[in-house]
Amino acid sequence: MDADFIAQILFSAIKTGTPLLFIALGEVICEKSGVLNLGQEGMMLMGAVVGFLAAYSTGNMAFGVLAAMAMGCVMSLIFGVLVLHLGANQVATGLALTIFGTGLSAFVGSDFVGKTIQGFNPIPIPYLSSIPYLGKILFEHDLLVYLSFIMTVLIMYVANKTRLGLTLKAVGENPNAANAIGIKVLRVRYLAIMFGGAMTGIAGAYMSLVYTPMWAENMTAGRGWIALALVVFASWRVGRIMLGAYLFGLASIMHLVLQGFGWTISTNLLAMLPYVATVFVMVIISADKFKEKLLAPRSLGKPFDPRHMA
Amino acid sequence: MNNTKTAQHISPRLELINISKQYPGCLANDNISLSLMPGEIHALLGENGAGKSTLVKTIYGVVAPDTGQLIWDGKEIEIKSPSTARELGIGMVFQHFSLFETLTVSQNIELCLSKPQLASIGNLAEKIRQLSQEYGLNIDPHRYVHSLSIGERQRVEIMRCLVQSVKLLILDEPTSVLTPQEVSGLFSVLRTLAAEGCSILFISHKLHEVTEICEKATILRGGKVINTCSPAEETSHSIAKMMVGDLAEQEAGYSKKEGTEVRFQIHDLSLSTQHPFGTSLKHINLELKAGEILGIAGVAGNGQDELMAIISGEDSRPVNAHLTMKSQPIGNLKTAIRRQLGMAYVPEERLGRGAVPDMSLTENTLLTHSQGFIKYGLVQWKQLKDYAKQLISDYSVKCHGEFSEAKSLSGGNLQKFIMGREIGQRPDVLICAHPTWGVDVGAALAIHQALLELRDQGAAILLISEDIDELFLLADRMAAVCDGYLSPIVRTQNTNIDQIGQWMAGTFINNQQHDADMLQETTA
After folding, report:
1. Is residue A173 part of a domain?
2. Do B81 and A310 touch (CB under 8 A)?
3. Using alpha carbons only, what angle is made at residue B177 by residues B269 and B61, rounded to the nearest 5 degrees?
4. Which of A201, B167, B198, B281 gives a 20 to 30 Å CA spacing to A87?
5. Residue B237 has what DSSP assignment?
6. Rounded to an integer, what is the distance from CA B202 to the centroid of its chain?
7. Chain A closest CA to B339's CA: distance in Å?
8. Which tens digits make up the pLDDT trace of B237-267?
9. Which domain holds residue A266?
10. CB of B274 within 8 Å of any CB in chain A?
11. Would A226 be classed as within a structural domain?
12. What is the pLDDT of residues B81-90, one digit of tens each?
């Protein structure tokens, strides 16, 4: 196994991990505000199909990505109105959103199954891409991968260094107290949910425009769920989310790699690696009761109704 | 502070004119008028449900009044939200603190400031240190709130108001969570503030505090202003009479009893906490005798919750021989078995621990009374309902009926119901936290009588409370907890509020012992 080969594997791991990274970055913002959106898979499929349709009919890739983002926003807004305004149970609503999105995306995209487009081309970054090995791994990607790098840094900065990040954390920890000091809890949560929706939309577009430039029913194959596990895996830390996304990406291409070596392990066994890794990490995290309670946003999944404040 | 020149101490800082607020089924505020001068410390007195909270929430912009005017520094204004209130210079310290535990002190304070305010302050941490020094608050801006004691958290809330150059400070029952020594510290901060021209609105139902610190008092009853007086010219009795209406018999001088045989015992119990913000128990020794009430004082969060949980069996870690009841080790037994052996339990948290919120009062009765009302595996609904009705009338629980859901009752009413239900089991050992917290005077008296009666019938009662006055009133013997240690236990006649106050602050803790425990905890 030579170094070029390893670089090739890591390059693919980043490519595979990118949709996970987008979703998890959006979801971590959503969860920090105290809202658990399990509708990621459905939102992602809708993003993928709408992104593909828009790009296919206009021939404009950027327009496809924007359309997917908008679709993600709309889907998350449906979720937001149900859980924030009408006080519906977040878990049930999220599951419903996934089922809804899976069905609707199959319906909308039925005429486009099997059609292909010319997806995003890789854009090697001048100078940086000529760094030995590292350049190959990090700087010969397409625009959306670079966007995910930028978003990670941006979100890390906003979450940890700005007033906005403080507000978000405050709302997720104790919405009643946040309301009492004049933070508009519902507004913050709506924005967080919609941000999550837009990010998931991009992840969907990444699947149908970059990863496999085509539309197929249920093409996201459970990535929305892996990304949800990833947020817990990373214990709500942005840096760890990036690391985790690439680790999960690596785990899901492992079966290809090992086949290359002539190992005859069932691909089904290897494909479950990310899930096993998640269960494993959850066990480790919950073994330490102290940490478990400190890390998770305190009011995650709990509804907040300002009318009950008086 | 900075408006005193223009106001010249002539016009009131805040004037309320005929404020009314109607809630479904209850007129919370009925034509309330009140005026507050700069530098005045004004008490807002009244029983639970008198409308105090609604009124201050109106001032702080959390609740919008139906009718009435607010006049601030001579101008009529509308306070639409807490942020409007804060911009005007109104600060509020809540009864249940509105701090974020996973943030630092300075982050908590930053969240309350507008961008221009923040910019004008410059270095926030430095400002906090400086104000902390000036008012003797002793706050480190970089500590995480979850590592602070209750008293410290309250000082953070006050600091949060000070940073914004507050002109009116509202405190909602600020002393209920403090040791007597901390209370006097708080009062000196308030006096300094008032001397600088800040108006203070002080909600309380502790009369001696009001007479000590307030120049004026407005007494509310049933949403109406009953009287405005100057506490110095009144007696506690006359003020109490205004609060309650017809004053129930003065609760003083309940007879004290000496217990007989030891009914319940804790031997050298040390147990680490399972909660990141909890307190570990350290070397707890306690003997509870039949026919006595043993009171445990302490500021919330000093190990009371952990102690309650291990006694009741809710914390299911086996501590076999460390707990004995009627000479039998019970430390490994499940909660239900302990109850069968004659233990009853009134937890601090009423909704969720003491009662299931979504279940009716009848169903909630069944939860702890299962034996009597189940025959051949079937629930005897008729008898059960009659019994629930009986409890409701005996303890004058205000509700629609035995079918009401537990969550529809006010805290005080639910407490009356839970106390009644537990006392009704005729337990041998009753473990009871904050029995009258949030309960009105009349009902508190009924609960006191029921507890004393139970004691006289030979039950052993462990009473955990933050209300020292109540402990002195009821307990035959007393102790205090601090930082998970239990003080020596003394007869109530042989101690006084000063000593218990000192113990609540931890003066009884042996330094060497403490160091050894800390060492053990860090190495473990």
Report:
1. yes
2. no
3. 140
4. A201
5. H
6. 16
7. 28
8. 677 677 766 544 444 567 888 888 899 999 9
9. 7-308
10. yes
11. yes
12. 888 888 888 9
CB contact under 8 A, A310 and B83: no
Mean pLDDT in residue range B118-147: 86
Q: What is the pTM of this model?
A: 0.71
Average pLDDT of every residue of chain A: 89
Encoded amino acid at B259, one letter: G
**Residue A168: closest CA among chain B residues belongs to which residue?**
B111
Q: How far, in Å, CA of A50 to CA of A70, rounded?
A: 9
Asked if the structure places residue A72 within a domain, the reply is: yes
Please report whether residue A303 resides in a domain.
Answer: yes
Q: Is B404 helix (H, G, I), strand (E, B) or coil?
A: coil
**CATH number of the domain that residue A264 is part of:** 1.10.3470
- B516 Cα distance to chain centroid: 33
Please state whether beta strands B378-379 and B199-204 pair in parallel, antiparallel, or not at all (unpaired): unpaired
| CATH architecture group of domain B262-353+425-523 | 3-Layer(aba) Sandwich (3.40)
How is chain B split into domains, by residue range? 262-353+425-523
Those residues of chain A whose CB sits closer than 8 Å to some CB in chain B are 163, 166-167, 169-170, 173-174, 176-178, 180-183, 289-291, 293-294, 298, 309-310
**Contact predicate B378/B404, CB 8 Å:** no
| CA B81 to chain CA mean position, Å | 26
The closest CB to that of A310, out of B57, B107, B112, belongs to B57
Question: A181 vs B94: CB contact, 8 Å cut-off?
Answer: no
Helix (H/G/I), strand (E/B), else coil: B165: coil
Please tell me the least confidently modeled range out of A133-137, A257-261, B399-403, B430-434: A257-261
Give me the pLDDT at residue B265, please: 92
Shortest Cα distance from A33 to chain B (angstroms)? 13
Q: How confident is the model at residue B5 (pLDDT cuts 50, 70, 90)?
A: very low
- Residue A161: closest C-alpha in chain B: B107
In chain A, the residue whose alpha carbon lies closest to the alpha carbon of B65 is A310
**Distance, CA of B156 to chain centre:** 18
Q: Whose structure tokens read 């979850």?
A: B146
Q: Is residue B62 less than 8 Å (CB to CB) from chain A?
A: yes
Buried/exposed B286-315: b ≥16 CB within 10 Å, e otherwise = bbbbbbbbbbbbbbebbbbbbbbbbbbbeb
ipTM, 2 dp: 0.78
Find the mean pLDDT for residues A284-292.
67
Residue B63 C-alpha, separation from nearest chain A C-alpha, in angstroms: 7
- Interchain pair B102, A169: CB under 8 A: yes
Mean pLDDT of A91-111: 95
Could you tell me which chain B residue has the CA closest to the CA of A309?
B62
Q: Contacts of residue B54 in chain A, CB cutoff 8 Å?
A: 310
d(CA A251, CA A233): 14
Nearest to B100 among A173, A182, A310 (CB): A173
Contacts of B146 in chain A (CB under 8 A): 294
Q: Does the beta-carbon distance from A293 to B107 stay under 8 Å?
A: no
Give the integer Cα–Cα distance in Å for B510 and B115.
48
Q: Give the mutation candidate from B98, B104, B279 for the A interface (greatest A CB count, under 10 A).
A: B98
In angstroms, the CA A149 to CA A138 distance is: 10
Q: What is the mean pLDDT of residues B474-489?
A: 91
Whether B98 has its CB under 8 Å from any CB of chain A: the answer is yes
Shortest CB distance from A180 goes to which of B98, B101, B107?
A: B98
For B94, the closest of A170, A180, A293 (CB atoms) is A180
The total number of structural domains that make up chain A: 1
Q: Answer yes or no: are the C-beta atoms of B497 and B340 closer than 8 Å.
A: no
Instruction: Using alpha carbons, select from B113, B112, B72 the residue that is nearest to residue B94.
Output: B112
Element (H, E) at B169: strand B168-172
Which of B83, B102, B276 is opposite residue A173, by nearest beta carbon? B102
Res A131: pLDDT: 87
| B103 in contact with chain A, both atoms CB, cutoff 8 A | yes
